[in-house]
Amino acid sequence: xxxxxxxxxxxxxxxxxxxxxxxxxxxxxxxxxxxxxxxxxxxxxxxxxxxxxxxxxxxxxxxxxxxxxxxxxxxxxxxxxxxxxxxxxxxxxxxxxxxxxxxxxxxxxxxxxxxxxxxxxxxxxxxxxxxxxxxxxxxxxxxxxxxxxxxxxxxxxxxxxxxxxxxxxxxxxxxxxxxxxxxxxxxxxxxxxxxxxxxxxxxxxxxxxxxxxxxxxxxxxxxxxxxxxxxxxxxxxxxxxxxxxxxxxxxxxxxxxxxxxxxxxxxxxxxxxxxxxxxxxxxxxxxxxxxxxxxxxxxxxxxxxxxxxxxxxxxxxxxxxxxxxxxxxxxxxxxxxxxxxxxxxxxxxxxxxxxxxxxxxxxxxxxxxxxxxxxxxxx
Length: 379
Known about the structure:
Order of helices and strands: EEEEHEHHHHHHHHHHHEHHEEEEEEH
Radius of gyration: 21 Å
Mean pLDDT: 87
Largest sheet: 5 strands, antiparallel
Shape: globular
Number of helices: 15
CATH superfamily of the largest domain: Hypothetical protein af1432
CATH topology of the largest domain: Hypothetical protein af1432
Helix content: 40-55%
Strand content: 5-15%
């Protein structure tokens, strides 16, 4: 399979992976033959890319570290909580909220069990950015990423539970922002950004009152926008004043936000997001945590179309976790842009004179520098 922006998709192409809605429900099933009507439906659902199956790439598979049903369970838990907490019926809220913590424990345990069943955790584009960037899927993505980091630095099961539930609920305070801001499909202005910063304290105040939710999980919501140098919010904490859980979730929050599409911009390339995080290491986040995060991200995800310095282009078909910046590539076009009758593979780990210069699909990613990235992630 290979990843294509929706602009490149043509009627008659075969869908290579199931496409989900923001709340984790199936929109289009794997193997469907795409028609013009279905492609238009994807565009209306704000899906910017899909995986296509074709004879030349049919054997290239991206493994799901977290099953679709697990994602749906977690997304549904968040969605139901949002509805619960915005319900004006106080009696209903008082009765149901007692089960909130247990509900999230169950949802997160499914994520944890899926991740622990995989010996090597390497997260590819389809695992973390296959949705349109809603709060539901963003929260699930951040929880998956944060748990992978927690596992890599040796957290025990209780610590992973506290971290993971905090990650799932880190943005819950946004439900108390004005409705017009929540629905806005353009960037927030300076005044709105100041209002949006209140979501961290709002989330903490919501979670610290809930049954079966750790106070440390609530502090993730409070502190995930704090930065080591004191430049964060809402309290301007510095260094060790910021809990490690919140730092981990902060890293994952920034990465997922940058690599997910928004109504006003395309997604940033993984290497640009990682470069930004490394540039802030020691200033915004502890460098050892950024390094732990980096170990689980495929810079050039399986299925993505890339261009080599030779002018050849193809699809990433294999990634070695020990050398993920030099994957194996199935070459589909020669240096002149001609389709090859007999595609072949190059393992860049061994072919050291060849390297990837970028992604072929310019419609899918923003091509920019780190300074531009800094302007994006503010709230």
